[in-house]
Description:
Layout: E1 2-3, E2 6-7, H1 10-29, H2 38-55, H3 64-81, H4 88-108, H5 114-121, H6 125-134, H7 154-157, H8 166-171, H9 173-184, H10 188-198, H11 204-211, H12 215-232
Helix pairs in contact: 1-2, 1-3, 2-3, 4-5, 4-6, 4-12, 5-6, 6-12, 10-12, 11-12
Amino acid sequence: MYNASGLKDKDQCLRDFAPLVKRLAHQMMTKLPYSVQIDDIIQAGMIGLLDAASRYDEIHGAQFETYATQRIRGAMLDELRSADWLPRSLRRDTRMIEQSISRVQQKLGRPASESEIADEMGVPLEEYQQKLQQSRGSQLMYYEDFQDEDHNDFFERFEFSNDADPLSLLQDERFKTELVSAIERLPEREKQLMGMIYEQEMNLREIGEVFGVSESRISQLHSQAVARLRGALKGY
């Protein structure tokens, strides 16, 4: 179906690679708030796949699936960047969760339980868990998405303050060391969950089946783990 000069059958390509679009969408949804609809992400991804099929004859020697994955993910990110994907109220709740986790863990000298964090926030456990679920979405981008189709670096196209330069953080060995240490300090189940998401690239449903809990519960645990890490790395 494919050769060095491009795709012979684009319709067949769309049929063959639609599962790839859905898989990438479900992986991305792990890191997005519930206000984002997966159907919108899949639709954007299908547009990216169609674009990849149209542009494939512009590159030589690259595997189509590798190229398509970049185009699909880029189309999804473009769709997200064009929308208010995380409302201000959810950003506020996310900061509140992170601050509460930091305070209670400093008091206890160990990872805090959900009930202890909820007590620190002064809310019932059920409300805290709901905030966790709603605050999903603090991580959006992948490092490999930091280049556009013309190979322009993301950090050249968007300005950041010198106090929080993401590229500097990525290159900072001390930051990497602290990140590894913070991950090691996570409760065991949250540490396992992070490995499944970021190393094994499992989606919420798959992880839920392994843990024997619902997708929403996995989402809560992921948000809590991210909040712990962000609080632990606040100095960076």
